[in-house]
TrEMBL record:
<dbReference type="InterPro" id="IPR000868">
    <property type="entry name" value="Isochorismatase-like_dom"/>
</dbReference>
<keyword id="KW-0479">Metal-binding</keyword>
<comment type="pathway">
    <text>Cofactor biosynthesis; nicotinate biosynthesis; nicotinate from nicotinamide: step 1/1.</text>
</comment>
<dbReference type="InterPro" id="IPR052347">
    <property type="entry name" value="Isochorismatase_Nicotinamidase"/>
</dbReference>
<dbReference type="GO" id="GO:0046872">
    <property type="term" value="F:metal ion binding"/>
</dbReference>
<feature type="domain" description="Isochorismatase-like">
    <location>
        <begin position="7"/>
        <end position="192"/>
    </location>
</feature>
<protein>
    <recommendedName>
        <fullName>Nicotinamidase</fullName>
        <ecNumber>3.5.1.19</ecNumber>
    </recommendedName>
</protein>
<comment type="similarity">
    <text>Belongs to the isochorismatase family.</text>
</comment>
<dbReference type="GO" id="GO:0008936">
    <property type="term" value="F:nicotinamidase activity"/>
</dbReference>
<keyword id="KW-0378">Hydrolase</keyword>
<dbReference type="GO" id="GO:0019363">
    <property type="term" value="P:pyridine nucleotide biosynthetic process"/>
</dbReference>
<keyword id="KW-0662">Pyridine nucleotide biosynthesis</keyword>
<dbReference type="InterPro" id="IPR036380">
    <property type="entry name" value="Isochorismatase-like_sf"/>
</dbReference>
<dbReference type="Pfam" id="PF00857">
    <property type="entry name" value="Isochorismatase"/>
</dbReference>
Length: 210
């Protein structure tokens, strides 16, 4: 069973990333049930929420002549340009309704991507890889040493968060059966190579709760 030094981080289980959403991940809503199952057994549950202002620089619509999934060079480096999604205050930015049990157990909700000129995949850093979200300090204040991660999407926000967790000295495990991927041009295989190189491990729901 999870201990007092374990935390569950549920990444971006929001309407716009689920079927029917603006940036839907295939089968994205399938993560809701295992996420709730996990949350019921963890004392420390943290959620992240993509929270973009309208006209965010990571949106293709903010760049003349660009289309979704093109890559643009922004101040901090190359950035995939996305369809407008998870705009602050919209229904698409809200957590999936079925996630209510996990939301009720959350000690902390980390909103990310709210700075207009910089995107944020990781729960720990903005995409400049320098600006922190404050999550690392919150975990250390709670005595957390090990984090389990689940949510959307495996190859972007989950992978970045897990890799950063490991590099910050936490033991990090991805519960892949409680994740779904975008897999854009081989992004899932690339992400898996990166997180394994960083020391991130995998776990099933049963293993996370054992």
């Amino acid at each position: 069973m999870p201990t007092d030094s374990d935390a569950l981080i549920l990444i971006d289980i929001q309407n716009d990333f689920c079927p029917g959403g603006a940036l839907a991940v295939a089968d994205g809503d399938a993560v809701v049930t295992p996420a709730n199952t996990l949350a019921a057994h963890f004392g420390i549950v943290i959620l992240t929420q993509d929270w973009h202002p309208a006209g965010h620089h990571s949106f293709a619509s903010a760049h003349a002549g660009k289309r979704p999934f093109d890559v643009a060079e922004l101040a901090y480096g190359p950035q995939v340009l996305w369809p407008d999604h998870c705009v602050q205050g919209t229904a698409g930015a809200q957590f999936h309704a079925g996630l209510a049990p996990a939301v009720d157990r959350a000690q902390l909700i980390v909103r990310k991507g709210f700075r207009p000129t910089i995107d944020s995949y990781s729960a720990f850093f903005e995409n400049d890889r320098v600006t922190p979200t404050g999550l690392s300090g919150a975990l250390r204040d709670r005595g957390v040493r090990r984090v389990f991660l689940a949510g959307l999407a495996t190859d972007y926000c989950v992978a970045y968060s897990a890799t950063d967790a490991a590099r910050l000295g936490f033991e990090a495990l991805i519960v892949e059966e409680a994740c779904r991927a975008i897999d854009l041009d081989g992004s899932l295989a690339a992400a898996r190579r990166d997180w394994m190189a960083a020391g991130v491990k995998g776990a099933t729901v049963a293993e996370a709760l054992a």
